[in-house]
Every structure is written in C-alpha cells, then in structure tokens.
C-alpha cells in the first residue's frame, strides 16, 4: 500500500504556519504485491515502485499528482514494466538523475534493465538496455550527468556502463570479513 498524507499544519510562502486540514490517501496494491523500493524521478513528477508479485518483478510508474490527497479517486499506475523475462524478484531500482523518463532496475535472475518512458504517452515505454550478468546486481547508481551508471554485484564487482548497458569498465573488490 502507498500512503500520502497532509498534516494539520503547513507553512505558506512566507514560512508562516497556517492551519490545514489533515488528510490521508491510501493507494491499495494487491495483497500479493511486495514493494522492494520506491523513488521519485528527477523532476519529481513520477513515482516508481519496484515490486514483486506471483508473476514476477515489475516497476509500477505513477503520476505523483494522482497520489496526492487533493486528487479524488484511486491512483492507478501510468504503466507497468516487467523486469527480466521470468518469475523473478526485484533487487535494485534507480531513476536517472537527469533524464527524468529513464530508470534502471535489476532482478534475482541476474538481469539488469534500463527503461525509458514515453512522456507524451506514459503507457508506452522502451527497453534501452537489458543484460544478463554473471551474478545478481544489488546496487545501481547513475553518474551526476546521467550518461553512465554503475552497478554492483553480489561478488563485489562494479560495472561502469552506458544506458544501453555496454560495459565501459569493470572493477573487482575483495572483502575480508
């Protein structure tokens, strides 16, 4: 379930406290859905939720305004994007910090995907890159300009990649615990 709320007090443009009514809006997801992680895109207009259900791993993309307590009615995803090709579980999710229509996600079947949403028709999307790796990716981070991403796997390898998932560099680190 996704919950949005507004408290009893708020601040106006002059930083003065004003009274506001308390409101809560609950967006109920199917009881079989497990939220792995959520995040806002670069311009904070979209919320992505990496979820697992009985059919596999998906990213639900919502218009943030539909989740607002001020918008009546239930919020539904603009689009639902499968990550990987099997009944897998999601592991990592990260929006591009510059291209607010692009994100990367990984699953436990060693798949890393980069997707781009068509903002003129948000129900449409394209897979910019999808790559099967040797081990699962648990961490994803984009460069500040959003032109490359790094992905860390369970064996300690870090991959530097283009959004199309062309590997530019590979680093191996060993842990002594």
From TrEMBL:
Localization of this protein: Nucleus
Keywords: Nucleus, Transport
Lineage top rank: taxon: Eukaryota
Residue ranges constituting the Nucleoporin Nup159/Nup146 N-terminal domain according to the UniProt record: 6-173
Protein name as annotated: Nucleoporin Nup159/Nup146 N-terminal domain-containing protein
InterPro entries: Nup159/Nup146_N, WD40/YVTN_repeat-like_dom_sf
Organism of this sequence: Dictyocaulus viviparus (Bovine lungworm)
Example of a GO cellular component annotation carried by this entry: nucleus
Cross-referenced SUPFAM superfamilies: Nucleoporin domain (SSF117289)
Chief location bin: nucleus
Keyword Transport attached: yes
Taxonomy of the source species: Eukaryota, Metazoa, Ecdysozoa, Nematoda, Chromadorea
């Amino acid at each position: 379930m996704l919950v949005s709320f507004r408290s009893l007090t708020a601040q106006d443009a002059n930083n003065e406290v004003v009274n506001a009514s308390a409101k809560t809006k609950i967006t109920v997801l199917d009881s079989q859905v497990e939220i792995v992680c959520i995040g806002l895109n670069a311009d904070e207009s979209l919320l992505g939720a990496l979820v697992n259900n009985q059919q596999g791993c998906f990213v639900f993309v919502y218009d943030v305004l539909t989740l607002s307590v001020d918008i009546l009615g239930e919020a539904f995803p603009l689009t639902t994007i499968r990550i990987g090709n099997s009944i897998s579980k999601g592991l990592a999710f990260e929006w591009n910090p510059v291209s607010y229509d692009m994100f990367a996600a990984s699953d436990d079947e060693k798949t890393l995907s980069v997707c781009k949403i068509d903002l003129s028709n948000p129900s449409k999307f394209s897979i910019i890159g999808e790559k099967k790796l040797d081990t699962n990716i648990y961490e994803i981070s984009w460069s500040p300009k959003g032109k490359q991403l790094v992905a860390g796997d369970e064996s300690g390898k870090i991959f530097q990649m283009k959004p199309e998932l062309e590997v530019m560099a590979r680093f191996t680190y060993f842990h002594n615990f």
